[in-house]
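User:
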Amino acid sequence: MITIRRAADRGHADHGWLDTRHTFSFAEYHDPAHMGFRALRVVNEDRVAPGKGFGTHPHRDMEIISYVLEGALEHRDSMGNGAVIRPGEVQLMSAGSGVAHSEFNHSESEQVHFLQIWILPERTGLTPGYQQRHFPPGLRRGRFGLLASRDGREGSLTIHQDASLLSALLEPGESASRELQGGRHAWLQVARGSVEVGGVRLDAGDGAAISEEPILKVVAVEPSELLLFELA
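Assistant: Predicted structure:
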């Protein structure tokens, strides 16, 4: 079963410095029918104006992933971490028992476009942690490459949940497949481009919940960048 969540149906807020779209309920956007999928709680697509950003604010008991599509995102947190995240890099912050952080557009002249993702942890009160890693395009070109996993296998980031994050870069006509064994579920998010899944076209910003499908096959219609969340 594949259930489509169209980009145009997401929550939307334009704050001037921030244009944000919410796949699931978030902040002032509340939709009881879209509160998340399995352990996946938030998929926000944010565009932040040059030199602007989110001031210091707290989080707890959440696995927070930042995935930059264009530009550069600057991060600082109460654990003493300071970094700039660029396309090809993935940041994972485990908020655990509590952490404060800020996120700003690192550039004074160019917009930053990124996805912020929240996944519920397997247990509360974990020790906060920070990871950031560059994943070369070759890992994901023409196939689903692993970015985050529960056990950190294959050089992926370690997430405190029975979940995996994968990404694919596909050219038109290319396909990528993923077996969903043991009754596992998946959420597919189209970051860029257009693909077909089960004969249905998905465009940039579209998402799809996948359950009771032993194999997920995605075929690119245009040059595409995809995120796939494999979930218990």
